[in-house]
Amino acid sequence: MPAISRRSALLLGGAGLTGTVAGGAGLWWTLNSRPSPVTGEPLGQPSALSSSGGLLEASLQAAPGQFPLAGRQAGALGYNGSIPGPTLRLRAGDVLRLKLVNKLAEPSNLHLHGLHVSPQGNGDNVFVAVDPGSSFDYEYRLPAGHPPGLYWYHPHHHGRVSDQIFAGLFGAIIVEDPVPVPASAERVLLVSDTSLDGAGNVAEASQQDRMAGREGALLLVNGQANPRLGARPGQRERWRIVNCCVARYLRLRLDGQKLQLLGMDSGRFRSPSDVQEVLLAPGNRADLLVTAALGQSELRAMPYDRGTMPGMSRRRMGPGLPAEQDGPADPAGTTLATLDVAGDPAPPAPVISAGAAPPELRSAAVAARRQLVLATPMGPGSGQGMGAGMMGFTINGLVFDERRTDTTVAAGTVEEWVLVNRSPMDHPFHLHVWPMQLIAENGRALETAVLRDVVNVPANGQCTVRIAFRDFTGRSVYHCHILDHEDLGMMGVIEVR
């Protein structure tokens, strides 16, 4: 029997090991063969839980088990018995009550990524630890004016975030539009990557994988490998895409089809814009309109160079992988899904009404200006390490310590932050609770209002953002959304009071 690491056994609570003992039908890896992913199955959709009468009350159980990944059974983690977890559908002003039940062999918790909700108490509080075998009752109230759009949820217990997401703990959140967007179909696409070890369990990352930011050997949509979708010519579909990968950037193309970007991250644009491709850093989301044209097209993740640290290569994780996977990426990219368009043409799609104008902070009074410096252990200004054999990723020279408050902000004010990256690799910067308006990239001012909750700070570059600290007070965090880097210390504590 292939060996299973102590870390994998702890993460999976023995569920993957049990599957290995039970028989070889579900195994990914054997000593003599390496089966391919099952492709071409119809795209499945996560189950959905919707609010009613201003309330959504539900339970999320995080547990190990055997889950279908790329068409084969694998030892992984899931919410409510599935990967991804259920999609939560809400409206502005709703109350969301979630009971997190932890059936894992280690602590966990829950973060509602991108939602503008309170970080205090049993709200979006990342300092809560839900121990194995226990539960925690979360409650969130969305403001009446909360932006519609696509968000997501995942664990955020420091030191275990990347492992738990890589193993399958994530799901989508949709805040509905006040006026529906006319589309023939809506599809939720959660893109994730993972790797499996010789026993068919989610693989443990090496220290080098964590330092570089791990990229899995399997690139999946809703847990499937290259699923198929069908449409008629002229149909307009709405694709809501989440980058749930721990470290992988998604440069998405769907050649042969008309693409319009309806929104990114924290809400809709005023009107959709024509695009050829969309770049999603880890944690970013895209709201895309796809107007189908006759023929077959592939949704592809094209190569993107996010940089690396000196002396380190970046490869896809997994045992027995071909040597060429350590080399340059395939210039044709990786197929995520295949769209087949055939049949009689559909009637013309209705005109989309204009959305609300995004908030504009460039003319706002700025109460404070700050500089946050992101650095890697091998770069200048890397600051302190993490002790025995561990190297820390830092913000302003410090690794994360939840007992320390790094940034104190006056409630109700607007601040301008310059995010400086003094490392040879990109770092996607995420601020909880309060969305950021991107003002400038590498000194180039933006001409339109762009809201993000994840801003990619390029290698050896910088970005300027403005933030309105409205509605809520309390302690929260900001961090690199290459989640291995977050777990290795690239996170700070903010308190708004």
Low-confidence stretches: 16-33, 319-326, 379-390
Shape: globular
Terminal Cα span: 56 Å
Question: Which structural category fits the helices and strands?
Answer: mainly beta
- Biggest sheet strand order reads 12-10-14-19-16-17
What Rg do the Cα atoms give?
Answer: 22 Å
Query: Helicity, in percent?
Result: under 10%
- Can you count the beta strands? 33
The main sheet comes to: 6 strands, mixed
Helix segment count?
Answer: 5
* Mean pLDDT across every amino acid position: 89
What can you see in these coordinates?
There is one protein chain. Helices cover 6% and strands 40% of the residues. The protein is mainly beta and 497 residues long. The strands form 7 sheets. It has a 6-stranded mixed beta sheet with strand order 12-10-14-19-16-17, with no helix packed on it. The chain has a 6-stranded mixed beta sheet with strand order 24-23-26-31-28-29, with no helix packed on it. The chain is globular. The chain starts with 5 loop residues before the first helix and ends with a strand. Mean pLDDT is 89; it is low at 16-33, 319-326 and 379-390.
Could you give the topology of this structure?
Elements: H1 6-12, H2 15-22, E1 48-50, E2 55-69, E3 72-79, E4 87-90, E5 95-102, E6 111-113, E7 135-141, E8 149-154, H3 161-166, E9 171-175, E10 185-194, H4 207-212, E11 215-216, E12 218-221, E13 228-231, E14 236-243, E15 250-253, E16 258-264, E17 268-275, E18 277-280, E19 285-291, E20 295-302, E21 316-317, E22 334-341, E23 368-375, E24 394-395, E25 407-409, E26 414-421, E27 427-431, E28 436-441, E29 444-452, E30 454-457, E31 462-468, E32 474-480, H5 483-487, E33 491-496
Parallel strand pairs: 1-4, 2-5, 4-9, 10-14, 11-21, 13-22, 23-26, 25-33
Antiparallel strand pairs: 2-3, 5-7, 6-8, 8-9, 10-12, 14-19, 15-18, 15-20, 16-17, 16-19, 20-22, 23-24, 26-31, 27-30, 27-32, 28-29, 28-31, 32-33
